[in-house]
Design a protein that fits this description.
This protein has 7 helices and 7 strands, in the order H-E-E-E-E-E-E-H-E-H-H-H-H-H. By secondary structure, it is an alpha/beta fold. The protein starts with a helix and ends in an 11-residue tail after the last helix.
Length: 336
């Protein structure tokens, strides 16, 4: 009986131990028996230090866990996640991987695309959809503490380098030059103030001139208004219609005068043609006379005709004198 009791005790201990081992395993794997879950996948180029079993968070609340991390073709990494059946994904969801503590624990955070941090690398990872796996949510890895520390260290080094350069640059000579520059700037400020005062006086005179000009413009406007009123009065009394009628008559007379002038111009053109013909003929006749052609040409160009005519006139004058002296010699008058 005692041996049988020991066997029951040993068996019970083994069963209890196995139950504790199974419970611990389920606890470590974060298994929830009887709880229905949905699955979702996300694609990444790199998942950092993410591991299977890490939490999936939506708006800071745990909504599932990572169940699988696998390499995919064309340089992708696909992460499978189990989500609670009642979980509602955000509009246009994306998955961001980030460190959840300082001890190397990571988590997958599901958020909307509009809430993605304004970071060039993160935005580029989310927008990268070249040959992405079908049905996988876009994902990106946020910078972790180590990367931020590295960047901060680089910034601190750059700041130290700049401070050293500033300390080297601002020595006694630089301080003296800086004081000189400040003094020159003070002198320049005084000159500028004087120039501003002078220009202020000039602006006053310009303002006065502009005021006078505006007064002239106002007077011109008043004169134009009076002129328009007179035109309006003339229009209402019929004077303007009479002026327009007389203008039409004058325009008609001017048109008739223009037509007559055109007719006269045509007649003058014809007369000019006739005159050119007459001048051409006269030129031909004068050319023939100059060349000694014809009787007139011979008379003009032959000196003998002039001398013979002169001799003839002398003899004719002598004959006339002789006839006056003794007409009976030449005339015989008989009366029957």
């Amino acid at each position: 009986m005692k041996t049988r009791s020991n066997d029951w005790l040993v068996g019970l201990t083994i069963v209890i131990t196995m139950g504790l081992i199974v419970a611990a395993t389920l606890f470590l794997q974060q298994s929830e028996l009887g709880r229905k879950r949905d699955t979702a996948t996300a694609r990444f180029r790199d998942v950092g230090s993410l591991q299977v079993g890490n939490a999936v968070v939506i708006r800071g609340v745990s909504a599932g866990r990572v169940t699988q991390i696998a390499l995919a073709p064309k340089g992708w990494v696909v992460v499978a996640m189990e989500l609670d059946r009642a979980t509602t994904l955000p509009v246009d969801p994306v998955v961001l991987l980030q460190a959840s503590s300082l001890f190397g624990e990571w988590q997958a955070m599901i958020t909307s695309r509009a809430a993605v941090p304004v970071n060039r690398d993160v935005v580029a990872q989310v927008e990268d959809a070249l040959d992405a796996p079908t049905g996988a949510l876009p994902g990106a890895v946020l910078p972790d503490i180590a990367q931020l520390t590295t960047v901060a260290g680089g910034i601190a080094g750059n700041v130290a380098s700049v401070a050293e350069r500033v300390r080297t640059a601002f020595n006694d000579t630089a301080a003296l030059e800086l004081r000189t520059s400040i003094r020159n700037f003070s002198v320049l400020s005084g000159d500028l103030a004087r120039a501003v005062r002078a220009q202020s006086r000039n602006l006053d005179s310009l303002a006065l001139t502009a005021r006078v000009g505006l007064a002239d413009v106002a007077a011109s406007s008043a004169a134009l208004r009076r002129t328009m009123q007179r035109v309006d009065t003339a229009t209402s009394t019929g004077a303007l219609e009479e002026i327009l009628a007389e203008s039409r008559v004058a325009s008609r007379n001017l048109r008739l005068a223009t037509e007559r002038f055109e007719t006269l111009s045509q007649a003058l053109a014809a007369s000019e043609a006739n005159l050119r013909g007459a001048i051409g003929k006269a030129d031909t006749v004068l050319g023939r006379i100059e060349r000694g052609e014809g009787s007139i040409g011979l008379l003009v160009n032959d000196p003998r005709l002039y001398r013979n005519a002169d001799s003839l006139l002398v003899e004719l004058r002598t004959l006339v004198v002789d006839v006056r002296r003794d007409p009976k010699r030449y005339f015989s008058v008989r009366v029957f």
